[in-house]
Sequence to fold (326 residues):
Amino acid sequence: MLEKGTKAPDFELNATPDQKIKLKDFKGKNVILAFYPADWSPVCSDQMALYNEMLKYFTKHDAQIFGISVDSVWCHLAFEQDRKLHFPLLADFEPKGKVSKAYGVYDEEVGESKRALFVIDKEGKIAWSYLSPTAVNPGADGILDALEELNKK
Amino acid sequence: MSSTLKPPVSEQDHVHGGKSATIEIVEFGDYQCPHCGHAHPIIKKIQKNFAEQIKFVFRNFPLQEAHEYAFPAAVAAEAAALQGKFWEMHDGIYENQNQIGETLFNELAEKIGLDIEQFKKDYSSGNVTEKVEADFESGIRSGVNGTPSFYVNGTKFDGGAEDLMEMLKESAE
Fold:
């Protein structure tokens, strides 16, 4: 898994069937990447639901959050609508898991992303990363601590 | 991630039970969350069984996007608290969770004998909203990742209300 201080690999992934997100377009903003195994599974749902409640805290720290899994855009779309999520879920779908692999958080055995968090600073460098046990929702305190650390600079 | 209660229990909190209790349980809960509704009678049982040995604290962790009435319910309980009836409103909401909504809050307010005018005024004031938001933020800081989340003597307890009951029984033996 990529560690603090590494340049965050750029990527271009679909957020919706006709909208692509490029990491480099978010230079000048803090970015949170939340890799997770799959839409609909109970633990991830709680994790995404939690981040959904925290958007105003992220905005306060000038940060944009993206969820990333290997699910397709259509699956993401249904999941977002069902859970009323107000932040983009990116589809690491084709080639499968390419971005997860670039960040070192792809589980080859099950073919899903691991549960991992990255906070990327305004210059595009990884400021904090955390790999959580797959069955455990890591919460959001680590993300907030990392964002606050960045604000101090 | 974090597993320590931040900030520690203070006068700002709603504390139920023995002031000199050796076991302090803090629940972060959402009034519309089914798991919290399920935990409620178990917590009641724990309180009954362990009486003065236990201090029980409730902090609000409403998932507003997932649960339409979670935040208003938390505000209603906090508004009742201003008239010294937090636990009455708290219990009333959990015991009637399937009817959660403004009608229920107003009915409960009458039933537990609140000054209705004052209750309505407090319910729409910013002060109680701030209390609920402060609770939520303390949950985030403490590493709450879902509801209910329990902290025993300031440390995150890895399990639900039933596990908590088991753990207490075992440590009492």
